[in-house]
Design goal:
- This protein is α+β, with helices and mostly antiparallel strands.
- Among the domains are: 64 residues; 113 residues, no CATH class.
- Strand 7 and strand 8 form a beta hairpin.
- The longest helix is centred in the first third of the chain and has 40 residues.
Length: 300
């Protein structure tokens, strides 16, 4: 629940930042245009062939414009108000302009160009610039010339416009970047968590090369061949149980000693004296007692 609220907050914040940034950019851009239009409207205009009084309230730099389209309102001077005008010639009109300060001294002009405007119903181009050192009423004289244009005086209409438009672009870009970053962060929080993999440790869960499911590794083939037998364990030879009354000794296979012909065991008749000394084995018929014969039963 807390994660969902945090994600919703990021999305809402991104939307707010984006909207505020875009609105701020649009507002600043519109203000820049309004500033330019107001500066054009506030230019002081002097009709051709008249002496016009201009009141400069501040010191500073001013420009003279030849305005080929516009409208002259109330002016202070010895001329009437021509109202709207528009130049229809093929080239820019020219005339002679002089300016005197409150003490009657001429104000010098310097050539100036590169500034123009086409806004608020007026079109003009800068021709000269000058500086006002003494505020107050100045007399602007425009020599007689063909009708259809006027002389406009004032500050550069473009002053501050570029700064406002740069601020508008920055505000819009900031809104898009910050809002987009919040959207991306919200999208990362809403994505499902990664599935944890097998725990890692010093022991391997599957041998190298084996499949994760426990089956044979890829490419494994069973090896076929003869069945193997378990290793044989050596067993002791069977032992013959001793005969009662016979001393323990090496047993011999029936039929005689190893390597010799099979022989029948020699026995003595009960109660018969063989004439051999006691303890001397009796013969087997060939004058010699077999070492494998049983003991003499006649000796008791």
């Amino acid at each position: 629940m807390e994660r969902s609220r945090s994600t919703s907050g990021l999305i809402a914040g991104g939307i707010v930042v984006l909207i505020v940034g875009l609105l701020t950019g649009v507002g600043l851009w519109y203000s820049a245009g309004q500033r330019h239009d107001d500066a054009v409207r506030n230019l002081a205009r002097a009709p051709v062939g008249c002496v016009t009084t201009l009141d400069f309230a501040e010191q500073g730099r001013y420009l003279l414009f030849v305005e080929t389209r516009g409208e002259i309102g109330d002016v202070v001077g010895d001329c009437g108000v021509p109202g709207a005008f528009e130049w229809t010639g093929t080239s820019q009109p020219s005339t002679t302009v002089t300016l005197t300060d409150p003490e009657g001294r001429d104000v010098g002009f310097d050539s100036f160009g590169g500034v123009s405007y086409d806004a608020a119903g007026s079109t003009g181009n800068a021709i000269e610039g000058f500086s006002i050192d003494t505020p107050g009423d100045h007399l602007l004289t425009v020599a007689d010339a063909p009708a259809g244009f006027a002389i406009a005086v004032g500050r550069d209409p473009n002053d501050g416009v570029g700064l406002l438009r740069a601020g508008a672009a920055l505000a819009a870009a900031a809104g898009v970047i910050i809002g987009g970053a919040l959207f991306v962060l919200a999208a990362r929080r809403t994505s499902p968590p990664p599935v944890p993999g097998p725990a890692s440790g010093p022991w391997m869960h599957t041998p190298p090369g084996a499949s994760p499911a426990g089956g044979p590794p890829p490419g494994w083939r069973p090896v076929t061949g003869p069945p193997t037998r378990p290793p044989t364990v050596p067993t002791a030879p069977p032992t013959t149980p001793p005969v009662p009354g016979q001393p323990a000794g090496p047993s011999s296979p029936p039929g005689g000693p190893p390597g010799g012909p099979p022989q029948a065991p020699a026995t003595a008749a009960p109660g018969r004296d063989t004439g051999a000394p006691r303890g001397t084995p009796t013969g087997t018929g060939d004058g010699e007692r077999s070492p494998w014969a049983p003991p003499d039963d006649s000796v008791r």
